[in-house]
Structure formats: C-alpha cells, structure tokens
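Is this the right way to post structure tokens for a design question? Let me know if I should format differently. Anyway, here goes:
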C-alpha cells in the first residue's frame, strides 16, 4: 500500500468528519462516487488533482490545506 495514499486517506477522513459529512454526502457534493471516497479514505486509491480540488471545495477547505497536512505527516 502506498504510504502517501494512506496518509491522504487519513487526512481526508478527518476533514470529512470535522465537516460532519457522511461519505455519501461528501461524494455527492464533490461529484464522485461514494465507493471512490471510501477507497481514498482507506488508502487504496490515489486521487487526481481534479478530485483533490473537488473534495476540498466540498469540505470547505483548500486543496493546499489537504496536501500540506499530508506533507506534514510524511
């Protein structure tokens, strides 16, 4: 398993929970399938830049904040 994908997944899940969103709600707001959100959170998939931007917008944070937190944990 890719450690960066795993760290991104942890950051994503924490941001989602802080926002009070379910995986389904986040996926709807980001226009991606909920199973993909699940795979991202478990570190099974690496998101593209466009997905990171959509997730960040849905979470009301910047993509830079998400990536910076992944960098901090690396």
């Amino acid at each position: 398993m890719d450690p960066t994908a795993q760290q991104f997944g942890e950051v994503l899940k924490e941001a989602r929970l802080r926002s009070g969103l379910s995986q389904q709600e986040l996926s709807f707001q980001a226009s991606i399938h909920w199973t993909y959100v699940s795979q991202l959170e478990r570190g099974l998939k690496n998101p593209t830049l466009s997905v990171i931007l959509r997730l960040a917008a849905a979470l009301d944070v910047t993509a830079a904040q998400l990536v910076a937190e992944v960098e901090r944990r690396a």
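Format looks fine. Someone answered above. Worth noting: Residues 3-73 form a domain with the 434 Repressor (Amino-terminal Domain) fold (CATH 1.10.260.40). The chain has a mean pLDDT of 97.
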